Amino acid sequence: MKTKKITLFLSLGLLAAFTAKAQNGQAPVFGGTVGKTLDDSKEWWPEPHKAPAGAPNVLWIILDDVGFGATSTFGGIIKTPNFDTLANNGLRYTNFHTAGICAPTRSALLTGRNHHYVHEGGFSHVTMSAGFPGYDGRIPSDKGTVAEILRENGYNTFAVGKYGLTPDEDATDAGPFDRWPTGKGFDHFFGFLGSATDQYKPDLVEDNAHVTPDGRHLTDQITDKAIFYLTRQHKVAPDKPFFLYYAPGATHSPHQVATEWSDLYKGQFDSGWDDFREKVIARQKQLGIIPAYAKLPERNSRIPAWKSLPDAEKKLYARFMEVYAGYLTYTDHEVGRLINHLKQSGQLDNTLVFVIIGDNGASKEGTVHGVINPKKNSAKLATEEAYLKTNIEDITDIGTPQASTNYPLGWAQAANTPFKYWKQDANSEGGTRNPLIVYYPKGIKDKGTIRTQYGHVIDVLPTTLEYTGIKLPEYIRGIKQDTLQGTSLVYSFDHPEAKSKHVLQHYYIFGSRSIYSDGWKAEAAHHPDNVELGDFKVGQNVPDKSFDDDIWELYNLNEDFNERIDLAKKYPEKLKELKAVFEAQAQKNNLYPFIDWYDVFHQRIHKNYKK
Length: 611
Fold this sequence. Notes:
By secondary structure, the chain is α/β, with parallel strands linked by helices.
């Protein structure tokens, strides 16, 4: 009997020791005594790490390709009632920023560090990565993710939807899996590894293997799976907190949604994108989302005035926006399903929720006339007139499972109201400013109010750690951890008047770049007239453009928040000072070498160039 008891104790002890080692990342120092026999020995068990008492659950929600002025929550016309409810009972951050495109934003969000610093200057795709520290698309192990950190501190960790940070060559069922979500701290994952996928025929993965989708819309599937994970965990360990990363592919192209959603907006965009912008900026002022002095930037020169368009084009473009609006409202509905589950299960009051409405500004990738069937539409490589004619003929395909829809440029600028430019333009607020909602029933006192403190996606992780009372581990799985680069926003939760603590931030995507310093911003576009990477035709030479020829602009965002008045000529010394600050940040964060991705994309795709 004594032997069996000792064996049981030894088994439990080994389990506890292994658990402690896995959580600490370092082998624990034995605190007992080892004699020659059990009688002259003293047993010792390392204490397993647990979350702080009463630690909240944590839910991060990040949408894809949503402009600042799209949702009703931030003054837009598109109805998002569930986001409205969260914001009306939480905080709206109106001066929050992303990296300007999806993978860089997500790598910065998950690690609390700048995207080049964690090697995600472009993407993890073969065609958009390069063999340099800032661009190889492989997040180093010394820059642990939020999932790794929280799991080390007693949380269950789940992710559903878009991941986007697994290198292409690792993304098969043969692995290796250390750069899949389960290799970066998530207990379970259900979603897709790439940057975009078909919503009805997704490239779907569960944990470490591809699985067959069931034919329903992907957002429906990921919401069900998230609820399943949470239900199972709560049943087995109701006192153990969870971290859920909910990242739908919406509203990235392809815009696909059931007609019951898109038909909610029948005829509501017939007045066009110019009228949309006017209505939205008025609503934003009324809600206090933007300053009362705000004025709209000029319509982009590539976008025609709505009144000048023929009726057939108006009908086509309005249908694009009906589908997009339905897609966004449907996504809000699915988030509502998740929130309602937490409420019904009694977990919502102790759940800290962050909602980032878009990983960048609205997408310009739909080109001037929109995209419906890019594989079918070889007319794109012929004439603009033929391309437009084909789109008009295919209008009923917009938003359907058989199409690969993306709305035209005019709606991208409208959805980005009140800012200039769009996704990929890291020089502009239109590319990088996205709404943030913070919701926590037990902790947010000043409910329904606005915060204007400067923030960036690298701030969400340190905010989460400070509020949950968790420190960054010194080691994760034996790897000594680098410091975080973000600034916690907790100081602003109860103090709307507090000065911004995040006062310096650089941006760089595909050559466009900028530097923000305590209200001032210097910026340079690299290919300001290009709509998208794929806009170049086969055989066409990409225009040579030296980075030294890029024109820098200067703005005082304290007085001109949406970059309407260029002060570069008025304050040349200030511009020189900020350019020097940018240079220092570029050296520190692996921004060099600058890479003209338009040229790289042209070489690797259009000329079948292989690495």
